[in-house]
Structure formats: structure tokens, C-alpha cells
Amino acid sequence: MTSVSLVDVTKRYGQAAPSVDQLSFTIADGEFFTLLGPSGCGKSTTLRMIAGFVAPTEGTIRFGESDVTGVPPYRRDTGMVFQNYALFPHMDVTANVAYGLRMRRTAKADRAQRVREALDVVGLGPYADRRIQELSGGQQQRVALARALVIRPSVLLLDEPLSNLDAKLREETRSQIRQLQQEFKITSVYVTHDQAEAMAVSDRIAVLEAGVLHQLGSPREIYHRPATAFVANFIGRSNVIAGTVTDRDDTWLGVKLDDGSVLQASVHPDTLSATAEVGDEVALSLRPEAIEVAGPAPAAADREIGTLHGRVTAVEFTGSTSQITLERKGGDEMLVSVTDSDDLPEVDTEVALRPDPARIWTVQP
Fold this sequence. Notes:
- The protein contains nine helices and 20 strands.
- The protein has helices at 43-51, 93-103, 108-121, 137-150, 167-184, 195-201, 219-224, 229-234, 272-275; strands spanning 4-11, 20-27, 32-36, 58-63, 66-67, 78-81, 155-159, 187-192, 204-209, 212-217, 239-248, 252-257, 262-266, 281-286, 291-296, 308-317, 321-327, 333-339, 350-355, 361-363.
- The strands form four sheets. Strands 6-7-8-3-9-10 form a six-stranded mixed β-sheet, with helices on both faces.
- α5 links the parallel β7 and β8.
- α2 (93-103) packs across α3 (108-121).
- It is elongated.
């Protein structure tokens, strides 16, 4: 096992804006670390710099205490699982898995034993003599995983490894990858654009946009305490509403929204809520499940601080919950998730909404 550190890593191509811009973080020994973001955000470029396939324009990459910035890929002791698996179609399963060991000139007897063990670990022992073309997509993915694991790497790198699988197989395979990672305690760096996938398998997640790190934290931290409007919108579903700080104390911020409503957001140390001053422009993140439908909207004169108002535009039954879509004054859309019942508001009804103040999170607009 080893840690992986990036210090002020930047990657530029020509005169274009940086693909990765001043990226710094440390991945702990044995951690499952995910680079998450939309297409083109720099996550795969970052993974390839860790692997050594791409050289950073600036900055330093370390494995443990060793500077590997200029070290070629074959000397970094990494195992890589590619998006397209990169298997050799003219070889059978055994030969594909053994390829890295042959390149390392591992003794034949040891090589055969390690290949058998790796195939058993991924559940493909009976398929050792099959051709790659005879395997399903999920089985091919497991061959690629076995090939990466068999060399016993210090760092396992996975670049969108599940993107070619159907939804059910993705869920099954991601659970298997997580189990294997925990069993072998390999430091792992995983790239995906799928938020649910990242939340399910990661110890920590780095959320990137346009080459910039927006937030780094555990899945729960990032979901419940997003740092920016981008993170709040990208991770799960959130209602992000712009506003202006009108008052504050050590416990609460008062934030006035564009429709005149005022919400109170709790103050938390080391977050924007702790430093925002009266007059600052901020945004509030309200998760759909943190909002209560409080009944019919009262007259304007009777409206209270901490309450929003909107017109129901859609009600969607989803099983144990229902999703209510509303339109606020000014045309902003909101989503509310409530326990399903027989007395949900009807479409075109004006209702009052009461967000849980403790779960209103202040973020950078």
C-alpha cells in the first residue's frame, strides 16, 4: 500500500485554459478515492497523470515519500482498469490476466498460481480457457480487474470501468470492486461521472469542474454539506436559490430571496455560513427531502419568516415517496420529496413550504 499526493498539479494543452488547474490533495494508504465530475472536467487527465501516461505541466506527484512526477508508467507499480477494458482479443482469459506478470518476468509456476488466484477472486476460475469474444461485457470487465490485481500493485487506477455495462450489472460490479478493494486494502483511484456510483463506493470524493477542485470530502459530507452551488446541483438533486444576507448572529443567517421570502440558515464553523456578512450574495441549498409541504399558502400579509410559497405544477408517484414540482414567484422551479399519502396537494394549488432550517446549507453561488 502507499499514499498518493498531488501538489499544485496543472495540465495545459497549448494556449487553452488548463485541463487541470492547481490540483492538490493526498489519498491515504488503502483509501478508495473517487474523482467525480461531468465530461471534460479533468478527472481522466488527473488519473492519467497519476498513472504516468500524461506529464503535468506544473506540480508534483508523490507515491508515499517518492517523487514520481517524471517516472515512467511501468515503474510506478500501478494497476490500471480502462474504460474499454483494453483486453487482447487473440489471447484467452489466462493469457490476458498473465500479461503483466510476463512483462515483469515472473517465474512460470508463480505466474500460473497467481493467475488462478486472481481469477478465483473475481469469480472467473471456470472461464480461464475462454476467448475474450466468448465473454459478456461484465465478464470482460472482471478479466480487466483480475489483470490489474494480479500484479499486486501499490495503487489501483480505474477509469470509468462500469460505463459500458447495463444498470443492474453496474450495481453488482461496483459492489464487487468495493469488496475486493477492502479485502486487499489497495489504495484506489476511481474516475466516474455517475454520482450514485461515487456515493456508493467511495471513502472520499473529489468533485471537479473545468479542472478546478470544488470540494473534497466523504460522500455524506458532500451530499449534506455542499461547498458550492455546482456541487449541490451535481450531487443528487437540490434546490439552489440565490439570496442576500440581511442579518446574522453566531447561530443563524437571515437570507432574503428574490421573491421577498426570508429563510434562516444555520451557521457551521469552517463553512461559508461562518464568514458571510450582511449584504453578501450567497446561495442556499435545500434538498427535496428537507422541505415540508405546510398546507395552503396564506395571504401575503400572514407569511412568516422561514416559509416559501409556490404553485404545484406536477405530482409524481415514485413508490414510498412522491415528487412534487412547484413554481415559485419569478418562475423558479422547486422539487419537494414527501412520504406518499392520499392528501397530497393537487396541480395548480398554491401551497406553503417549510424547509428544515438545520438542513438549509449556505453555498458559494
